[in-house]
Amino acid sequence: MGLLVDGKWQKDSALIDEKEGRFIRKESQFRNWVTADGSAGPTGEGGFKAEPNRYHLYVSYACPWANRTLIMRQLKGLEELISVSVVNPYRDENGWTFAPGDEVDQDPVLDADYLHQIYTYVEPDYSGRVTVPVLYDLKQNKIVNNESSEIMRMLNSAFDEVGADQGDYYPPELSDEIDALNDEIYDKINNGVYKTGFSTKQAVYDEEVTKLFEALDQLDKRLEDKRFLLGDQLTEADWRLFVTLIRFDSVYHGHFKCNLKRIVDYKNLWRYTRELYNYRGVAETINFDHIKEHYYATHKNINPTGIVPKGPELDFSLA
Ligand SMILES: N[C@@H](CCC(=O)N[C@@H](CS)C(=O)NCC(=O)O)C(=O)O
C-alpha cells in the first residue's frame, strides 16, 4: 500500500508493526467541520457553512468507514444536496483510482486518475495516508474532513435547515450511551476484523479473533430483547455496527479468517442485519461486487492469487 510523503506518492509502506505482527490504524488528518452557520466545529477551522450543492463525498463502496457516511447521507435525504464519487474497488500500488469500472464514477473536480491527486491539489506537501471517505468543499477547493465518524455527525445535523430530512441519530440524551457503545464496537468489531485479518503472528491472531467473537456473542445477547442496540430508536451506533456485519460473511469470515461463526449463525445479529439492510435506501449503499473485489484482489499479502470467491449466497430479505 502506498502513501504520500511531502506531496510525493510512495508506492510502498507498512501498516503492520513488524516485530509485534499487529495492525496499527493511523489518525485521519483533515478535521474541519461543516456547520449550520459556518462557525468552527469541535476541531479544525470555520468557514464551512452547510449549503446545498457545495460539498462532495469521495467514497469506496468497499470501505466500511465510507459506507457509514453514505448511509447517513441516505437516511438524512441528502442525495440531492451532497454529490458523491465512487472510486474503483481495486486499490493498486497507486492507491485509490478512478479507473473506469462498473459503478465507478469520474472525478468531478480534477478529472483525476488517482485520489491522491485530490489530496495534493489541496495540500501540495501532504504527508500521510490517502483514505476514503473524503468530504470536499467544491466552493473553496478544500478537503473539509477525512474522518468518517466526524463526517457522519455533520451529515446528521448540519444540513437540517437547508433541506435535510428529519431524524437525529445522535440525540443529546443518548450521546453518552452511544459514545460508549461506539468505543467498544470500534475497537473489538469494526477495527477488530482488521486486527484479526492483518495479524502476522499466530498469538496475535488468536487474541484478536477471540476478542472479536466475544464481542459478537455479547451483542447477540444484547439484541435478544432489543430491536436495535439502544431499544426501539435507531442511532448512529447501529449504523456503525451494521457496516461491519454486512461485510462479515462475504469477506471477513473467509479473507480475514474471522471464522468461528458467520453472522447468519447468530439468531439476533442476523435478524438485526437484515432489518437494517432493508431500512430505507440503505441497500443502495451496499455493493457486494465492489466489497469482494476490493478485499480479495487488493490485499495480496493475505490472498496472493487475488482470486475473488463466488459465494457465499446470502439472502437478506425479511420474509
Ligand atoms: N479513520 C478513517 C479510516 C478510513 C480508512 O482507513 N479507509 C480505508 C479504506 S476502508 C482507506 O482508504 N485506506 C487506504 C490507506 O490506508 O492507504 C475513517 O474512519 O474515515
From TrEMBL:
It holds the Pfam family GST_N_2. It comes from the Bacteria. Residues 171-298 form the GST C-terminal domain. This is Glutathione S-transferase family protein. It comes from Amphibacillus indicireducens.
